[in-house]
Amino acid sequence: MHVSPVREPLITGAKSYKDITNDVMAPVKAKPGKLWYIGITVSALLMVFGFIMIGYTVWFGIGTWGADRTIGWGWDITNFVWWVGIGHAGTFISAILLLFRQKWRTSINRAAEAMTIIAVMCAGLFPLIHMGRLPLGFYILPYPNSRDLWVNFNSPLLWDVFAITTYLLVSILFWYMGLIPDLGTIRDRMKTAWKKKTYNLLSFGWKGSARHWHRHESMSLILAGLAAPLVLSVHTIVSFDFATSVIPGWHTTIFPPYFVSGAVFSGFAMVLTLMIVTRKALNLEDYITVGHVESMNKIIIATGSIVGIAYITELFMAWYSGVEYERYAFMNRMMGPYAWAYWIMMTCNVISPQLLWIKKLRRSLTFTFILSIFINIGMWFERFVIVVTSLHRDYLPSSWSMYAPTWVEVAIFLGTLGLFFTLFFLFIRVFPVIALSEVKAVARSSAESFIEKPVKVKPSEEPHI
Amino acid sequence: MKSIVYGYFTDENDLLEAVKKLQDDGIRIEDVRTPFPVHGLDAILKLPRSGLPKVAFIAGLAGGVLALWFQIWVFTSAWPLVIGGKPYLSLPAFIPVTFEVTVLFAAFAMVIVFLVRSNLGPGSVPDILDEEVTDDHFQIILSEKHNKLSDTELVNALASTGALGVQNINTGK
């Protein structure tokens, strides 16, 4: 197969198919190290603490939070949108990049998708708690009931229920169907009978038959085709929660594309945060290379720039619309009591990703790691700015208010971080972090050891186009 | 007595060559098992086009029609409700749910049909002949039952393609 000599290999080092299997499976087979135990203990404790605080909220009521009648949505909805946003990278990588035939996707799609599923679970918790009466949560489902009422299909909040449920279920299907061949690989490498049995159960009895692969490929392609518009629909619908209201600062038509690009932006930042640590901790540097990080950084520049343009467009439209409430809302964002949050958002989301135009920074792991944390923080503040600053000064100055979270809200947020990392730690122990069969399938064309006669081209000899 | 004959390759290109050679000799190939989908193998084996896209289309259509019909029924017949002065039948508002249910039905139907058709699922016990198939072996399986040749002839045919570890086991069926 002809491979352009200037294209850098996706898998470095002398790797045979067997090496790929062994390297990726090593963390599943080996006994976990001390760091893993420390990590999962800390996250699990945080998670338990968060769940206790959810119980506290349900028991004593939403009054334990800092929200009031003016600022009805506080940290809960901020966190909800933040988590859903993070949950956009995985399916973007595995569905949209599959349709665009981006081979570098194969090394990161598995972990990114696991991250997506966990993030969406964390996100889903917040609207449920926010409803206050958790045991009545099933009221949001359309089922025949004694009240003879159906749910309001005209409400974006209900669309959210459908969008997020569908997204979670389809993401799980897509992720798990991709996993079954790899679980078969683990089954055949396990020595203990009970482990073999368990992994056989999990792998659905996979045996690698050509007929199965043929159907599997056809299914993956159609699932990707279905998941691609689904990814875009989820954050679009989340943005409708805001955009269809009459609150100045929320009521804008730019919200759907702005939210979707923001979601992919924050999702990729979280993938980078996790993968830069994971590749080191699990010795997967040959599979998740600097080239992969650079590719992800390029998507960060693209989506980050769209987000930046969206912020400026919002400002322009507020002024150009001539609506005094709209103008005030944006002046208040920039110079009001929450201006600090606005400027943190602007710095982290608009200015910092532009540094990635410099190739040296784009390929630096340390810089990328720090930047990804900045973006995570910036994107959290974006949601805080949208939710809280738009609400805290509404049409009636007598009900203007200020908002600060109580320790209960902070604890619940930390609890979801705990849940996220607990499940991620479990994932890297039980399942292969890299899509084995997909990496093997692209190895022939993209692994250093398989490419015939790799020609080293000096920069000066690069062909000019 | 019916037996099956199998052997493996460690390179997918050798496998493709061997499959072609065996087919040219008029030998029917029972199954080929590989660690990953080998590009071009399905064409050589003349596997029929998968019906899964059709399943997805039909199920998606069913889901979409069901969701749209249900919302229209709720708002025009079951419990007409004026919401914000909007008409009972406000179609644009029904699009998001219709879309989501379409995707949900299509995805689930396709995965279920895939598992059932392939006889895969929790509790399915596979007939694994070589555990390395999920690692780096590309395996060809021939069956005496579906070929005119005897098992020793099949062993020779397979070995002549360069297959390694050629074995012959009697399944008794």
Kindly, what is the distance between the CA atoms of the first and last residues of chain B, rounded to a whole number of angstroms? 7 Å
Percentage of β-strand residues of chain B: 5-15%
Rounded to an integer, what's the Rg of chain B over CA atoms? 25 Å
| Shape descriptor of chain B | rod-shaped
Write down the CATH class of the largest domain in chain B. Answer: Alpha Beta
Strand order of the largest sheet of chain B: 2-3-1-4
Number of helices of chain B: 5
Please describe what this structure looks like:
The complex is a heterodimer of chains A (465) and B (173). Chain A is mostly helical and 465 residues long. Chain A contains 16 helices and no strands. Chain A has one domain. Chain A is globular and about 70 Å long. Chain B contains 5 helices and 4 strands. The longest helix of chain B is centred in the middle third of the chain and has 27 residues, at 52-78. Chain B is rod-shaped, with a radius of gyration of 25 Å. The termini of chain B are close together. The chains are: A mainly alpha (465), B alpha+beta (173). At the A-B interface, helix 1, helix 6, helix 8 and helix 16 of A face strand 2, helix 3 and helix 4 of B.
Question: In summary, what is this structure?
Answer:
The complex is a heterodimer of chains A (465) and B (173). Chain A is mostly helical. Chain A has helices at 17-29, 34-60, 75-86, 89-99, 105-130, 156-189, 193-202, 210-243, 255-281, 290-321, 324-335, 339-351, 359-362, 365-392, 407-430, 436-446.
